[in-house]
Amino acid sequence: MSDILNEYRYDGSEKLNLKKVCHDSGGRKDKKAELVKKTEKNLQEIADLQEKLYAESKESVLIVLQALDAAGKDSTIKHVLASVNPQGIIVHSFKGPNSTEESHDFLWRYHKRLPSRGIMCIFNRSYYEEVLVVNVHEFWKGYKMPKRTLTKDYIKNKYKDICSWENYLYGNGYRIVKFFLNLSKDEQKRRFLERIDRKEKNWKFSPNDIKERAYWDKYQEAFEDAINATSTKDCPWYVLPADQKWYTRYLVSEVLVQTLRDINPSFPKLPDDDKNRLADCKALLEAEGGTVPAKKEAKKEKAEKKAAAPKEKKPKKEKKDKKEKLTANAAIK
Q1: Largest Cα–Cα separation, the chain
Q2: Residue 126 Cα distances to 110, 259, 277, angstroms
Q3: Are 150 and 237 in contact (CB under 8 A)?
């Protein structure tokens, strides 16, 4: 793991204090061009490794994105994973549970959307909402559940459930990468005002955003408690500064490329019998006769280049010598 990521990684070895962590690049603004370039390089490597992950189909990567409103979850997904083959990635954006989902345990709707091995999957908001928004607004007190479950320890018990579930998934071939995009209150205000002022961004704003903003301190406490209670060595949290999107995207790309390198996927190697079958199939195709399309195209391209090339003009001296030779022959005759 790179040194820069250790600043933002929480694996249970130390406690998170959100009041003491930064929301920006931490004085790295002068390195913006370098880090943006590094982000692009990471994206290409992520795409290459994801192709191998898909082909090998041994492990899956579950990316959990949590943040307050306007922190940039959607744009992070758009920019960081745009280069990945769509066939090998799934995005699930979770809203409030419907009546069917409410009639099951809180993990039910998430478990059934887990990816198969070889697939990368993003949970845009996730099962952590049960210990965040549900905690802040105490929605759990109104659940249609036995009284023995709705005690003052309800949220603490959910932490245990989450840790147990994530440990279960890790043991079954899932790498869980959890991001909290840590936005400052001032930057959230600026982005909200921008959404109001710019017509093309009006659709992103909801009056409910202002209502939730009033609970800022409670959300900070809920995030801090949840991260401290569920950070483990195998399923760590990354608390990333979100005020500067270019820096957030760099860090996300760095975490993902490091995770995929750690998995170290490779293209499957064919057994000798299958290799022999390939050789047989190749021989059958070549025995059909005709021109192989690739070779035919190459031959055509070569002919076109030759036709387009300017013809060489013979030197004037050569023409003069030829004329003198004809004159001499005429004189002899």
Answers
A1: 129
A2: 7, 20, 46
A3: no
Handedness of CA 275, 277, 282, 283 (dihedral sign): positive
Alpha-carbon distance of 216 to 227, in angstroms, equals 17
Close Cβ partners of 32 (under 8 Å, ≥ 6 residues apart): 25, 246, 247
E-assigned strand segments in 82-146 = 89-93, 120-124
Q: Tens-of-pLDDT digits for all 333 residues of the chain?
A: 677 899 999 999 999 999 999 999 999 999 999 999 999 999 999 999 999 999 999 999 999 999 999 999 999 999 988 888 899 999 999 999 999 999 999 999 999 999 999 999 999 999 999 999 999 999 999 999 999 999 999 999 999 999 999 999 999 999 999 999 999 999 999 999 999 999 999 999 999 999 999 999 999 999 999 999 999 999 999 999 999 999 999 999 999 999 999 999 999 988 888 878 888 898 888 888 776 566 666 667 777 767 776 665 555 555 555 555 555 555 544
Task: Give the strand order in the sheet containing 174-182.
Answer: 9-10, 237-241, 174-182, 60-67, 120-124, 89-93
Q: Which residues are within 8 A (CB) of 268 and not within 5 positions of it... i.e. 6 or more apart? A: 55, 56
